């Protein structure tokens, strides 16, 4: 099903999407986090939040938190959905790597029409997640009950990669590293060792890879019940 939304300036779409993704990753949505994610200045974020508030897209709360209104969430859902469908198309059909697909989808999300969105979903056989395992809004995806951060596993424990959150997608070089290492949704792995600093050494396929505590605490995996 294609989402309909009122036309908005691409900057409003970008900020709405960012707020949605920060919420999805469980990060407090304040101006500093938005500035970090979009790599813009705090004054620029402050001005944009004021503009979006006047348009009825966001509202501020205690402690400077920023939340989406009903209209803002509708806009964000549309953009996030189209971004993740575009990523799926770019990887599955055009065979781009994760990093390139993420970058290109950031452009496509602003121009995909409802008709094209619907056609892409039909061509892709109605996927429920982007290539990194993040839910495509409106598909009814439900995260498995056994889902847990990779960092919470013990040595010698086996897992299946479930999701690479948006927070890691924005870390320079992280997507390409994880794809190259086979840390991809659906791939099986096993924790080989855990270092004192929290670094995990995991075996995926025939390759052993070190995963930092920062990344391991965010990568979502599933385990045997």
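Sequence proposed for the structure above (225 residues):
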């Amino acid at each position: 099903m294609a989402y309909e939304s009122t036309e908005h300036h691409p900057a409003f779409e970008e900020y709405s999407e960012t707020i949605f993704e920060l919420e999805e990753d469980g990060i407090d949505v304040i101006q500093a986090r938005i500035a970090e994610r979009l790599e813009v200045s705090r004054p620029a974020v402050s001005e944009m939040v004021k503009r979006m508030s006047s348009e009825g897209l966001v509202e501020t709360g205690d402690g400077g938190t920023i939340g989406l209104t009903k209209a803002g969430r509708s806009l964000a859902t549309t953009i996030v959905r189209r971004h993740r469908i575009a990523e799926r198309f770019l990887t599955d059909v055009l065979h781009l790597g994760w990093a390139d697909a993420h970058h290109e989808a950031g452009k496509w999300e602003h121009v995909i029409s409802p008709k094209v969105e619907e056609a892409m979903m039909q061509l892709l056989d109605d996927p429920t997640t982007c290539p990194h395992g993040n839910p495509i809004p409106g598909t009814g995806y439900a995260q498995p009950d056994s889902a847990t951060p990779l960092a919470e596993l013990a040595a010698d424990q086996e897992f299946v990669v479930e999701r690479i959150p948006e927070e890691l997608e924005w870390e320079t070089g992280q997507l390409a590293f994880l794809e190259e290492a086979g840390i991809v949704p659906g791939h099986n792995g096993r924790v080989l060792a855990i270092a004192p600093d929290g670094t995990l050494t995991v075996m995926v396929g025939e390759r052993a890879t070190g995963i930092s505590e920062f990344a391991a605490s965010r990568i979502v995996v599933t385990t045997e019940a």
